[in-house]
Specification:
- The chain has one helix and two strands, in the order E-E-H.
- By secondary structure, the protein is of the alpha+beta class.
- The chain has a domain of 26 residues.
- It has a two-stranded antiparallel ribbon.
- Strand 1 and strand 2 form a beta hairpin.
- The radius of gyration is 12 Å and the shape is flat.
């Protein structure tokens, strides 16, 4: 498991019609993320 994630105090405001969509496998690994998910997660 990756442990190199560091929380920040930066906030990013979502637009009115933004919907974050992601999908994971049975182990919790991300297998899909829409463009908004990728934009917000980096």
């Amino acid at each position: 498991m990756k442990s190199g994630i560091t929380p920040t105090t930066n906030e990013k405001r979502m637009r009115e019609n933004d919907f974050i969509v992601s999908k994971t496998d049975i182990r919790g690994r991300i297998t899909y993320g829409n463009e908004i998910f990728i934009e917000f997660s980096g």
